[in-house]
Amino acid sequence: MAEGGLEHGGRLGAARRRFPGAPEPFLDLSTGINPVPWPAPAPMPPLPPAAWTRLPEPEAEEALRAAAARAYGAADAAMVAAAPGTQILIQLLPRLFPQPRLAVLSPTYAEHAACWRAAGTVVEPVARFGDLARAPAALLVNPNNPDGRRVAVAEIAALADALAARGGLLIVDEAFVELEPEPWGAAGLLPHPGLILLRSFGKSHGLAGLRLGFLLAAPERAAVARAALGPWAVSGPALALGGAALADAAWRAASAARLAGEAARLDALLERAGLRVLGGTRLFRLAEGDAAFWFRRLGEAGILVRAFQDQPRWLRFGIPGEERDWERLSNILR
Questions:
Q1: What 3-state class would DSSP assign to 187?
Q2: What counts of helices (H) and strands (E) characterise the chain?
Q3: Phi/psi at 179 (5° precision)
Q4: Could you tell me which residues come within 8 angstroms of residue 214 by beta carbon, excluding any fewer than 6 positions away?
Q5: Which of 189, 216, 247 marks a domain boundary?
Q6: For site-directed labelling of 274, which of 23, 113, 167, 292 has its Cα 20 to 30 A away?
Q7: Same structural domain for residues 30 and 91?
Q8: What is the residue range of 203's domain?
Q9: What is the DSSP-derived secondary structure letter of residue 190?
């Protein structure tokens, strides 16, 4: 469902206009955002007044980058650039590191190809990982959105080596990697000269409205990104909460374990409804079936899921948060 531009989930205003008779509140399962945000079950820590009233200090931004480096496995905070969400980084990359041609492992998050095309790059969608090496630069989302396809770190390292040997670049969007069971994150490969990684804080920590994301790369590339973002790119509240959340490894471990069980629970629910689960991550599941029927049926019941114009039999389901949300979804799928 789109209102100008590319399709995205989370547009409840458009959903209400499309399903005006749907009961409220709308249950939004159209995004891949952790439904139980940090620091649940504890209350959100209070913020100092200065986080709201003063321009952020450089030391606070440096502390956040250090926390991100530790949490994501980068050896040095100099390899990190903090931004108000990864979307702005996706839009900046083609202008900061222009490429004549970019291969994109597809289908995937459509903003990547759209932003590179807008910058004048020839974008070549490819269906196989091995085909990425044919272009001077390449991009993949790992785990992939929306089907959860995964590429091992060793394969990423080999591809980055091959591209860097001829002056190319590999970009890996790791927005959904943090809560997965295997060490799929590639930050340990840095400072690789031909590798850029993107990390989404908001999805894993359930705080998408805070707008916080990170670029990880060799120090020279990370410095270019920081310079392009300029001073005070990250708000004072995001600096304070982001640093505290990234330092909370125990919460991340507990959240990952909880979501593993809930992803399996959602798979079982979808399969009982006659949908075939194609894959996903611990933050969303992709199913195939009579998508038009289920999108309409769920929407009329006040439940928004993600449909795909180019894949008319696919639906992506986010993970319900509270037990009443599970019951509401289950009642409709029956």
A1: helix
A2: 12, 13
A3: -105, 10
A4: 65, 68, 72, 80, 81, 82, 83, 86, 198, 199, 201
A5: 247
A6: 23
A7: no
A8: 50-247
A9: -
The pLDDT score that the predictor gives to residue 3 is 38
Asked whether residue 44 is domain-assigned, the answer is: no
In the predicted model, residues of the chain with pLDDT beneath 70 are 1-7
Residue with tokens 């900046």: 92
The structure tokens 């785990």 sit at 143
Phi-psi domain of 232 (left: phi exceeds 0; alpha: psi -120 through 50; beta: other)? left
Tokens 């943090």: give the residue: 178
pLDDT for position 6 = 63
DSSP 28: E
Structure tokens belonging to residue 143:
């785990």
Domain co-membership, 170 together with 289: no
Q: How many CA atoms lie within 13 A of 320 on its CB side?
A: 19
3-state secondary structure of 247: coil
pLDDT in tens, 198-249: 999 999 999 999 999 999 999 999 999 999 999 999 999 999 999 999 999 9
Do 237 and 280 reside in the same domain of the chain? no
> Can you name the residues that pair with 276 across neighbouring β-strands?
288
